[in-house]
């Protein structure tokens, strides 16, 4: 839960409009987002889109991180006990673990792509990371 909380503190909050859309998905779907003559469709909103992308990236990062931790525990346990049958089995399990870590990094990177450029610059400066 700490993992998600860190992302949620920086992400755009869920708006009243998004809560309405979520709670009334059936109605919104069948009316195709119609909100009256001369008004934009309910679902067309850049802020809602960014918030949705942020939460999607957060969830992808969380799932990949949880999978990495599970694979890490499995790998360490089997490596310590010497239960791998051969080097190929060892390499295969290590490969799974690495792929989950790469997935976590990609998801976090996609999340950071949604952040304002000035926030990223300030974070890089704080962490002493050169700009790319």
Description:
The chain is mainly α. It contains six helices and no strands. The model has no long low-confidence stretch (mean pLDDT 81).
Protein traits:
mainly alpha; 132 residues; 6 helices
Quick structural summary:
By secondary structure, the protein is mostly helical. It contains six helices and no strands.
Question: Which consecutive residue ranges, at least 5 long each, have pLDDT under 50?
Answer: none
- What separation lies between the terminal Cα atoms? 31 Å
Count every helix, treating DSSP H or I runs of 4 or more residues as helices: 6
**N to C succession of SSEs:** HHHHHH
How much of the sequence is in beta strands? Answer: under 5%
> Strand pairing plus helix content: what structural class?
mainly alpha
Q: Describe the biggest sheet?
A: none
Question: Could you give the topology of this structure?
Answer:
Blueprint: H1 2-10, H2 16-23, H3 25-31, H4 46-81, H5 87-112, H6 117-127
């Amino acid at each position: 839960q700490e993992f998600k909380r860190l992302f949620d503190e920086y992400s755009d909050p869920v708006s009243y409009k998004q809560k309405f859309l979520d709670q009334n998905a059936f109605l919104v779907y069948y009316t195709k987002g119609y909100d009256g003559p001369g008004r934009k469709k309910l679902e067309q909103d850049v802020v809602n889109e960014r918030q949705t992308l942020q939460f999607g990236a957060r969830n992808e990062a969380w799932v990949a991180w949880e999978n990495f931790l599970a694979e890490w525990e499995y790998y360490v346990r089997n490596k310590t006990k010497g239960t791998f049958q051969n080097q190929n089995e060892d390499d295969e399990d290590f490969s799974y673990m690495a792929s989950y870590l790469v997935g976590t990094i990609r998801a976090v990177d996609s999340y950071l792509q949604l952040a304002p450029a000035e926030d990223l610059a300030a974070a890089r400066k704080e962490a002493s990371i050169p700009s790319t």
